[in-house]
Amino acid sequence: MMSTVKRQLAFARVDSFSTQNIVRGVQSVFKGMLLPSLGIVAFLILWSFAASSINTSLGKFPGPQAVFEQVQNLYREHRVEREKEAAFYQRQEARNEKRLAEDPRYQPKIRAYTGKETFWDQIVTSLLTVMSGFLLAVLLAIPLGIAIGLSKKLNTAINPIIQIFKPVSPLAWLPLVTIVVSAVYVTPDPMFAKSFINSLVTVTLCCIWPMVINTSVGVASLNKDWVNVSKVLRLPALQHVKKIVLPASIPAIFTGMRMSLGIAWMVLIAAEMLAQNPGLGKFVWDEFQNGSSQSLSRIMTAVLVIGLIGFILDRSMLQLQRLLSWDKTVELR
Amino acid sequence: MPAFLDISNIDMVFPTPTGNFTALKSVNLKIEKGEFISLIGHSGCGKSTVLNVVAGLYKATLGGVILDNKEVNAPGPERAVVFQNHSLLPWLTAYQNVELAVKQVFSNTMGKAEMVDWIEHNLRLVHMDHAMHKRPDEISGGMKQRVGIARALAMQPQVLLMDEPFGALDALTRAHMQDSLMEIQDELNNTVIMITHDVDEAVLLSDRIVMMSNGPAATVGEILDVNLERPRSRLSLAEDKEYNRLRSAVLTFLYEKQRKIEPIKVPKENKAALSSAS
Fold first, then answer.
1. Which end of chain A has a smaller Cβ tally under 10 Å, C or N?
2. What span, in angstroms and rounded, lies between the C-alpha atoms of B32 and B156?
3. pTM of the model
4. Which residue of B56, B75, B87 is in closest CB contact with A226?
5. Are A226 and B89 in contact (CB < 8 Å)?
6. Which helix (H) or strand (E) holds A319?
7. What is the pLDDT of residues B163-187, one digit of tens each?
């Protein structure tokens, strides 16, 4: 594979000025850049056309123009909020210094700024939550998947449970999670907010299953020759898992991880909306409740941002897979 | 004195949904130390099953295998296997593939530097030292098989088991590999059992050719001693009388005595066409 690529590269260098190559180059640029841009332009035209013909109680449905304005608006609001925050801390510090100068025994009180979360803050919160929930799911799912993949009996025992929990919607889990977390997670000085734990656990519960299933299928369909190699070498069980099973199932594990991350992101937004936990979902719900003339275009902006982040998450996962997996033939899709 | 490797009275019965299938029946074979044995026979005659029993990957239904006065009951590195499709681990380089075996077998008896030397020595033996840090998908089929052989040799096995090691290679590469194997065999004088389909390969490489009868209930049909002088050269042997006598003996066994009559299947579409025409 590699050598043919190298040969092609060398070949391309030799006659890089031939017309055939120029044509091929133009074609690849056309395929790589022009077609996607064409698709986006077509979508924007369709969108603005459709938007202008939908009238709602909150005015016209937002088109690309309205969304673009909101992006600038939201950024400006974020800047303003940050300036306010900086000003608050400055005032607090000045006040404390003054008090301290008057009375050296004074213990200065430092209060945190409690301003409104901006769109940007919500994005950061959502990303943190999804990554934590996903990582927790990875830590649980991969060992479980390997165990199930290695043992047919264990698989037969556990598979029905997995199949039952797999299709459960996050919204069904959420009330239970909320109640349980508030009952169990009781500390005077909590390290994490309860809302964060709620979202995290919900995400974990929903995205663990595809990973368990994919990992177990990958492990169970291990190449028989590799198992025989391991047997001939008399690898102990732990070495067998570490040297043979785990690397061999890396492609399957990553397929499961990519699916799960996609699910995690979708689940999180829904959970945040329903539970009013901080994040992009809450932003959407708040705007919906707000019902101002700008609300629809702000929600539309959030929708696009959610999509964009989901896309970036998936691509990052793919890049990670390419970096870590020995199987370099995975398709970019 | 008992034989070095004694395959005695092996029966192999596989349970299938339609009842038991007897693959092997009373297979007996005694092999001396340093002998090169070829197992030849039509496909499906149970050659691989014999090899897998010796390797310990299958357990014989009846009978057993004794190697150097010890019964074989599990796979182990003293009976290293070279598999037909190389079975290298694709996430490891050639060096690392051999290293995995060496670390497993010699971690108690060799120092680190010694192990490195031993791995490199074995890769040099199969002429793969120039590409030892390449991964299996970066090297050709013949090269992969060389690494597979190096991995098996590096275990310093008492018996080297080869399951159609060159079956998946093109004719030229195969000839090249056979020459390499003879060269290695001259140096190490291993005990080898090799499965093959190739009559020339069997005659060229072996000390004895074990010809198996067709299954079900396959067994050892005839054993042919090959007393050609070593080192052997395929070019001078092509004119050799004895070589051609041995060659035709094997061919006679395979295509007259044990001719395999395969039913010719008529594809469904043809059948339909025939019936509609009539």
1. C
2. 17
3. 0.79
4. B87
5. yes
6. helix A295-324
7. 999 888 888 888 988 998 998 888 8
